[in-house]
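quick one before i forget lol
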Amino acid sequence: MSSVLFTPVSVGPLTLSNRIIVSPMCQYSAEQGSATAWHAVHLGQLAQSGAGLLLLEATAVEDIGRITPGCLGLYSDANEAALGRALDSVRLAGNIPLGVQLSHAGRKASSARPWQGGALLDAAHGGWPTVAPSALPHADGETPPAALDRAGLLRIREAFVQAALRAQRLGLQAIELHVAHGYLLHQFLSPLSNTRDDAYGGSAQGRMRYPLEVFDAVRQAVDPGIAVGVRLSATDWVDGGLDLELTLPFTLELARRGCAWFDVSSGGVSPRQKIAVGPGYQVHLAQAVREATGVPTMAVGLITEPQQAEDIVASGRADMVALARAMLWNPRWPWHAAAALGAGLDVPAPYWRAAPRGAQDVFLNARVAQR
């Protein structure tokens, strides 16, 4: 049996050994934006998964851009040093390529951790003032954010650049800009959250201007050997919001600028969204972006079974599958997928004896070493 899922794929200058991506997953376990021992353990087990790429969780480019007080950041020397220590441990666990998702939460910042309710926090409970394209709250009854002025736009764009340079110094091989799930760059794109009347609002071209400026600044700042991709919400699932008709011109502009991949998700900008959730419910969005741009795409969202993932990439609907909750539930998901699909992958030597009878050939490096 020949598995497409376990064949190499290139994203810009980076070649991955297979098409399984560990999706960014917020852990809400940082201290003042700095990684802790939790991150070393969490990322270490995922580094042993055998996936083609491990993307670190949404990482804020400035302190007020954190989703919660526990969110990871890369905006200070202390953040950089702490993440470096965690990554030193992760690299001992496996040789998986590592990337980071850079983000600014905008009006969705200053929120409680999900297991604490997720509501917007006021100053008395550790919150801070938020910013956005327009002074529109995310949900009814919330304190409106401050609309960003020109100085604020320049500050945040430079914050993305500096975070990207920190990522480069840490030896990360890929950077994903978060333009999804209702966070700041998505807020600029969506007509539901951007009602500006200057050059950064109004028409679709105006609304995409700032995310494109941020992408250009990051792409120009880091070395050509670092792959830079984008996570998108291809539709808001709200009448009058983003849909594929509005999203595809944006992806074409990014493709022209050298975007290495599109990680295609959806929703998050409005509580009014109505999503028909089911297995692979966003794959058609990844397929549309792939067909329009020719850029490799990652499909994400309720992809849980090996054959399901194989069918997605083998049929050409997406080039890769990005797994989040499935990987939290089963950090060895790629091992089991390789066994189910008759493929092989590399794993750390201390685990070579782990395969049950009949599945030993899954571990390619063990197979070679034992010859």
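fyi The first helix runs from residue 37 to 47.
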